[in-house]
Amino acid sequence: MxxxxxxxxxxxxxxxxxxxxxxxxxxxxxQLLVESAGARSVGVxxxxxxxxxxxxxxxxGKTEELAAMVAATExxxxxxxxxLSPAQERNLEAICQCRVxxxxxxxxxxxxxRARTHEGKLQVELAQxxxxxxxxxxxWTHLERQKGGIGMRGPGETQLETDRRxxxxxIKNINRRLExxxxxxxxxxxxxxxxxxxxxxxxxxxxxxxxxxFNALTTSEVYAADQLFATLDPTLRKLALPDGEVILxxxxxxxxxxxxxxxxxxxxxxxxxxxxEILLHIVDCADDNMADNFxxxxxxxxEIGAGEITQLVVCNKIDLLxxxxxxxDYDDEGKPERVWVSAQKRQGFDLLLQAITDLIGKVIHEFxxxxxxxxxxxxxxxxxxxxxxxxxxxxxxxxxxxxxVEDGDWRRLVKQSEGExxxxxxxxxxxxxxx
Length: 435
Known about the structure:
By secondary structure, the protein is of the alpha/beta class. The protein is 38% helix and 22% strand. The strands form three sheets. It has a seven-stranded mixed sheet with strand order 6-7-5-8-9-11-10, sandwiched between helices. Strand 13 (388-393) and strand 14 (399-406) form a beta hairpin.
């Protein structure tokens, strides 16, 4: 069995152009991922195919070319810019005589290096174990036999079966621990709702400048660097607006074809995005792939159930464009939809803060509230706002109403009630929709 990949190794990269858009990747992005992982590229094998080869992914000829480059450069790891099957990894390792990684494993390795908090480390380990569980066959074929010898014959357990059992036990244990973390986060979210502070979550393609913008807006010291996945663990800070405050959340950056194991493992972290009133979608306006990266983020947002949340697009890095000044673009209804700023030069921040303020006032919540019989004055307040959609009574005399109310009005009511009204929300997982 080959030793695990470690940062600092020399790598040969493999990139194949496919006619199918779903399989297409970016070679520049692979090089950035490799640099972010701490490896050094000593060669690149490229080619074109209509579909992957079942045995080697790249075909017999390209495999021989790859093996020759590995031998010539004395590389100790091969990194593919694509997802490989366990069998393909095993076959390639046998030919190249070195460790072979696919794109998913590389991203998981970067996440493992960047995780700092207890929760982040658990999430990364869970993703790695789920990914590893499909790849136990590689490198263990010498152990695929029943134990023999005197007293050892008969029904036994293969090494693979033992590994799978241990993995299942570890995954179950981590899931239990993450459930506790999730409950703690949910309590924090409810406290923020009762404190009438809205949550604004930063999302965007990795390396778009989210953490730099977060630090500049909140005077924080979140790690920011010109590399992919510089930020992994979520960070929350208060942000002062022209007429109030919000909670600003910095989360992990997205990437094309984000591994499903990561999406599943980071469910608790991504809930900061799912529960936000507004998403600040940060884009690198100086990147030639800006439009494609924007679409990739939208796909991930839809996948995690945050596709319908109000978005404000923040076009960052205008300092890299020629003759460009900060500005705000508005839609046909007069709502801000795009702000042009430079986080590095701190340009356009006043426009951004005002745009956030304007949007928060237009966010509408729709949820159910169970009002006790002795708190009927809240019902009158909802009627004055023309917010009641449906109304009924349960057997105890509680009035259950479905309300549709603007964010500002809701937070004012919660503040006036000293938080009591928030405790009457029948379904705490309220849904924010565009106004």
